[in-house]
TrEMBL record:
InterPro entries: ChrR-like_cupin_dom, RmlC-like_jellyroll, RmlC_Cupin_sf. This is Cupin domain-containing protein. The lineage of its organism: Bacteria, Pseudomonadati, Pseudomonadota, Alphaproteobacteria, Hyphomicrobiales. Keywords: Signal. Residues 29-136 form the ChrR-like cupin domain. It comes from Methylocystis parvus. The keyword Calcium does not apply. It comes from the Bacteria. Transmembrane segments: none annotated. The keyword Transmembrane does not apply.
Amino acid sequence: MRSIALTIGALCAFGGAALADVSGLRRADGLDWRPAPSDLPSGAEVAVLYGDPMSSGPFVVRLRAPAGYQVAAHKHPDLETITVISGVLRYGEGQRLDPRSEAFVHAGDFFAAPAGMSHWIAINEDAVIQVSGTGPWKIDYIDPRDRPRAAQLN
């Protein structure tokens, strides 16, 4: 039941803005920003640039998050690539947020998380990141207690 609720929440956030296989120019000042899906912490917004993250196939989204925003250790069933568009964040690999394993990532920097690799992010300055992957997009938190808004789904 929880995964159905997460999927419905993600569809509401991603699905309405999906561009499914539409080519063309996307201007930064014309993006359709919407609240992030419920399986991400509240406070962030997403804009779909290409594809439909909830359907099979490639997608590109941007996530805009304020300083202090964190996504706890998690993994994805498919490769995820991230480019920092603006701001500064910390990126780490492993089972939990750990300052000993983090790297500061700045505008223009890139990282890739292969399928099944545990990783996390913490935003230092308001940031925009671009995420590319193959849908359907799914996030699995290493510790289920880290899943945002989990209490609302019970």
